[in-house]
Design goal:
By secondary structure, the chain is of the alpha+beta class. It is 37% helix and 24% strand. The protein contains 14 helices and 16 strands. Strands 1, 2, 3, 4, 5, 6, 7, 12, 13, 14, 15 and 16 form a twelve-stranded mixed sheet that branches. A two-stranded antiparallel ribbon has the order 8-11. A hairpin with a 2-residue loop joins β13 and β14. α6 (103-118) packs parallel to α14 and α13 (384-397) packs across α14.
Length: 437
């Protein structure tokens, strides 16, 4: 037995990395129905695996993720299904970590099923990241970096995820593993080979990875969407916002309080020759400029402080478990400051806590000037689907229980986690339509 196999197959009594045992929200009486529904659901994917063993291990893995196991790593899954079968453990480890099955084909079919269940023309694609704490430095992309799951700097991997949200529900669409810049230096060459990183892989920031996925979803044309919703880490990146706008999609992104903008009515001089009265003189402008004697750009927090009381209106964002969730909103048209130059016109959305007026969040959106304010309010509440999806996947499906260390293994595991999550969403929708009494 290899050293790796010994490490991966030793008895594991540690709690899930998330620290949360599964809630077991499906009643025992539903277990048989769950098995039958999963078999039907998996039939959509089985033909996409080239070999019989791959089809067998994929179904075993999904059953394990959907089970009531406290720790949903490979050994407990196999133990539950096959007993103490070390050969099966090794086979499933190879299937996840090194298996030659095609994630892209699986995800394409997954997105087709998501569109059938949840698709709406004004659907929202949400971009966000999540950290996966890891011990040691042998797993692909591990580094001491900010880990949102822990709320601090820690040794972890960082994933970037797309979640689709509509009025019917929410689930995952795509994923990328962020590889820190240091992993591309000469000192990490041996580790890159050991973890199976593609030779042509280059360093990309999280916003770049997020935009790549949004572009891919848009180009595929499978899942309908109008909005791209993103956290501050992405909203503060001009290239990310411009990339979304170039797709003719509407972004709604949180931005830092220091974000600079000009008032909507500021005079913009387009690229071309300078002007002095009626004479075209001076140095040609390589891009648009704000004319002289125009109001200075302001930070959004300064804009918020100067807003008159009457522009703030209270809106209900969504209905929560304990009643409606409301906040005070104000909306201002402005011009983005893009590397000292004016960009396009945007909505600036100010969201102020109903209980603490000093707590204000700031958002930008390139939605049309005539957009209904209620649409902007709704987008301000669409952080919860991605947070909820990640929480559900970690606490219910073992999203963070994986032990594979390879590039391929990380993406394989996440792909199957997406299938397991959408299966539950699909089942809930079906049960809602045909409730059992």
């Amino acid at each position: 037995m290899s050293k790796v196999t010994k490490t991966q197959t030793k008895p594991d009594a540690s709690p899930p990395p998330s620290g949360r045992p599964p809630s077991g929200n499906l009643a025992p009486r539903e277990a048989k129905r769950l098995a039958a529904e999963l078999s039907n659901y998996y039939a959509e994917y089985a033909p996409l695996f080239a070999r019989r063993e791959q089809r067998e291990w994929a179904q075993l893995y999904l059953r394990g993720q959907l089970s009531d196991l406290e720790r949903k790593s490979i050994e407990p899954m196999v133990l539950r299904e096959r007993g103490k079968d070390l050969n099966a453990v090794r086979a499933v480890q190879q299937f996840i970590g090194e298996g030659g099955w095609d994630d892209d084909r699986i995800l394409e079919r997954h997105q087709q099923l998501v569109a059938a269940d949840l698709g709406e023309p004004d659907g929202t694609v949400i971009v966000d990241g999540s950290g996966f704490p890891k011990k040691g430095d042998h797993s692909v992309g591990v580094q001491r970096q900010y880990c949102g799951a822990l709320g601090k700097l820690a040794n972890c991997q960082q994933g970037v995820f797309l979640v689709y949200a509509s009025r019917h529900g929410h689930t995952f669409l795509d994923r990328r593993l962020y590889i820190p810049k240091t992993w591309f230096d000469d000192a990490h060459a041996a580790k890159r080979r050991k973890c199976g990183l593609p030779e042509k892989l280059a360093f990309k920031t999280e916003p770049t990875l997020g935009l790549e996925m949004v572009k891919a979803i848009n180009q595929a044309g499978i899942v309908p969407f109008r909005w791209v919703n993103a956290a501050e880490h992405y909203g503060m990146n001009p290239d990310f916002l411009d990339g979304v706008a170039d797709l003719e999609k509407w972004y709604f992104a949180e931005v830092p309080a220091s974000t600079m903008l000009w008032p909507e009515k500021v005079k913009i001089l387009n690229a071309g020759l300078g002007q002095s009265g009626n004479l075209k003189t001076g140095r040609p402008r390589s891009g648009p400029r704000v004319a002289r004697n125009q109001p200075a750009a302001q930070e959004v927090r300064q804009m918020a402080a100067e807003l008159p009381t009457e522009v703030w209106k209270r809106y209900t964002i969504k209905e929560g478990a304990k009643g409606p969730i409301s906040a005070d909103f104000a909306f201002v048209r402005a011009v983005r400051k893009r590397r000292r130059r004016p960009g396009h016109e945007v909505w600036v959305i100010f969201r102020r806590s109903a209980s603490d007026p000093t707590e204000i969040k700031y958002y930008l959106s390139n939605a049309p000037a005539e957009i209904a304010k209620t649409d902007l309010v709704r987008q301000s509440g669409l952080r919860w689907p991605v947070e909820t999806a990640i929480e559900e996947a970690k606490s219910e499906l073992g999203m963070d229980h994986y032990e594979t260390r390879t590039w391929r293994g990380w993406h394989h595991h996440m792909t199957l986690t997406f299938l397991a999550h959408h299966f539950l969403v699909h089942l809930r929708l079906k049960m809602k339509k045909s409730p059992r009494h």
